[in-house]
Structures are given as structure tokens and as C-alpha cells.
Amino acid sequence: MEKSKFRIEWRIENFKVCPLQYERKICTPSFSVGILRGTVWRLILYPKGCSTRNHTAFYLRREYSDAGIGEIFVDFELSIQCLPRATQIIKPFKNVCFSVNDIYGHSGFPECELENRTVFICTLTESNERNENIWKRKKENVELLSAQLHNVLSDEFFSDLILQCGGREFRVHKAIFAARCPNFLAYLTKSQKEILTPINISNIISPDSLKLYLSYIYSGKLDLTSIKIPSDLYKIARRFEIADLCQTMKSFPQSSIVRTKFEAQRHRLIWSVYKKPIFKPLIRIIRVDIKNVRHLIANISVRKNDNGHEVIIMKFKLIGCPPYANVCVAITVIIMDKNKQCLGEFSDNCLLVENIKGKWIFCIKTLGLEIPKKFILRCDFEIYDGKSSSTVVNQMSEKLLFSNFTQLPNDMMKLLKK
Predict the structure, then answer these.
(1) Which of 129, 141, 145, 366 is 20 to 30 Å apart from 47, CA to CA?
(2) What is the Cα 281 distance to its own chain's centre?
(3) Residues 313 and 379 sit within 8 Å (Cβ to Cβ)
(4) Is the CB of residue 177 less than 8 Å from the CB of residue 189?
(5) In the chain, what is the greatest distance between 2 CA atoms, to the nearest angstrom?
């Protein structure tokens, strides 16, 4: 039988112009993985490298565990998918032991493969090689406890509390409620005048949701066959602070998508150029809507250097930004002949800082080719300020069976001690 897997995709837009420098990182929000017993994880990325320059480092980090799980052995796979070419680089890891705050991954993904739209993928599953022996006996014991408590609910033996909901009656046990959901028990009994007086709770939950809820309270399991999780189940879990039910519902998704977008503006300038002995600079003013910058002036010219080689000289100037503000420019320059055949291409990034009024920033590149008298010059600009935002979108599979066995035995042990 194939093991259950959790897959998270981290989709980064405008990754090519990511402004982070060497040893600077970006992270996903923390996410909970139900098939790894509710442990919490995070993906970490060093776009410009961590231990190896000119490479991208991609890591998986274990954050924390409310369930008190010390070590967990995990099989996982890190991969990078570059769009639109759909090339993929994969690094698998087997039987890795993760304690809280441990980090594992790969620091040598080639930076040159990365495109504007890049997807970082992590697939996780619990390793059978070590965890089966460590947790098998404990799991069997807890599953037996879960089954026996569920039988207590089904058989209604020794019930001392009756709940009415939608014309149906549910007989439950105050002791179980005291251990598992004390706030809910306090809400139920505050207005109860006599023992075994039915308590109507139709105003806060539907009968079907209550049946699911009671099943979870007694057994630690939620058995759902629909992607539609009742909204009132969420509400009652939050209202009465049933922490392990909230945590279980957080781990419902079998896959997640994290989107991070670096804000960038794209501009393409194309000139048909006739190269005269005295080449006048090509000047264009680009309107920019990043931060407080109003305009970016691009000044482009072709000259010969001291060695007689022709070079592209680019000058940039910011207008309308506050002192010491910075804007980054990624530029790709393509030289084509009049038939639009590419003769040469280069790309570069530069950081513009408005610290001296009227200052120009230079970018010079030797092409190593003789530029014809008539040629086409195409310049693709990407202008950005490094501001990033991330959102999380969770997707659920169609059939779900979730369990949270970590809190159930703890609650029962507290009950026995009392």
C-alpha cells in the first residue's frame, strides 16, 4: 500500500528579479502536516545562495510540535520547476531524523536555471524504516483506547447528560467532556436545573455536525467523505477552545500552495538604429509606479573602448524618489540585425540609490562582436523594489479520514488522576 504524502508548492513570481543578496533568505508561512502527526514545518529559500555562491539553497525546517513529539523520521523530496520551460531539478532525502528546529536540504541548486516563474516543491511522508518500530506499540494502544471510548458513546452506557439537536437526542458523559472539552461542558451545565434534563443546542450546531463532533471527542477521529467541512464545526471548536480539534482541522489539506510575488514592472524598448560615426545616445523616459519613484531615465549608447571593442553603455537616473530610496533594475539587452536575427545578448542587475541629486548609475558590457551599421536594439527592463507578499491557499482531497491521537490519551490520563 502506498504511503500517504503531503505536497506543498511554493510558487514565486518574478523570481528572476528577487532582490535578496547572498546569505539572505525568504520563508513560507508555517504549515501543519497531518500525516506527520500534526508536526509543523516551514520551507526556507536562499535565492542567491547560502554556503555556495551563484547557487540557490532550498531547505525544509521543522518548527515546533504542540504534541510533544521529540524525533520524527521523514522521507522528503525537494524539487525546483522552472516555468515556462517546465524543466525540473529533484533532490530526494530518505529516512531523515527531524527534531524541533532541525533543517535539512540542498544548497547547490543551479541559479542559472531559475526563471521568472519558479515553483519550489516539497513532498513529505513519514519514513517507515525507523518510525514503524518506535511508534507501532504506542499507536496500537491509543487506537484501542479510541475504539473503546467510541463504543462507550455508541452504547450510551452510564450516560449522565442528554443533548437535544434537531429533534434528535445524544446521550453523553460529563466525565469525558470534563477531560476533553471543559469549556463546552461549562456552557451546557450552567443552565441545567435537574440531572438528565435534556439540553437543546440546536441554536449552535446542526445534528450531523454534532455527531461528528462527539465522535471526535470520544475517539480522536473525524470521518468525512466530502470536501465540505461543516462551518459550525469550525465555530464550535474555536468558541469553546477545543485546541486539538482546531489543530486537526488545520491539518486537513493533503496539499498546499504558497504564493510569493516580488512586485515588478516590465517595460520593453525597441530601437531601429543606424550607427553613424558619431553615435548619439538613445534616451527614453520610463514612468515607474514603485514606491515614490515617478520616472526612470534610460540612456543607452554604443561606443568603442580603448581596445577597439564595441561596448554597450547604459546609464540610469531616478526622478521623484525620496533621499536614499533604492530601486532595482534587471535588464536584458538583445542586439539583432535588420532581419531580427540575434547577434548578441546580455543580462544584468543593478541597484539604484538616490543619494546624490542628479547622479547617473552606469552599466557597461563588452559584447565581443562587431555591431553592424544598421541594427535593432531591444531592451527588456524589470523594475522592482524588493517588496514581497505571500498568501496561502489550501486544497483538500475528496475523501478524508483524520485523527489526532496525541491529545486523547493525555486527556484521559488527566481524568484518571482527578
Answers:
(1) 366
(2) 45
(3) no
(4) no
(5) 104
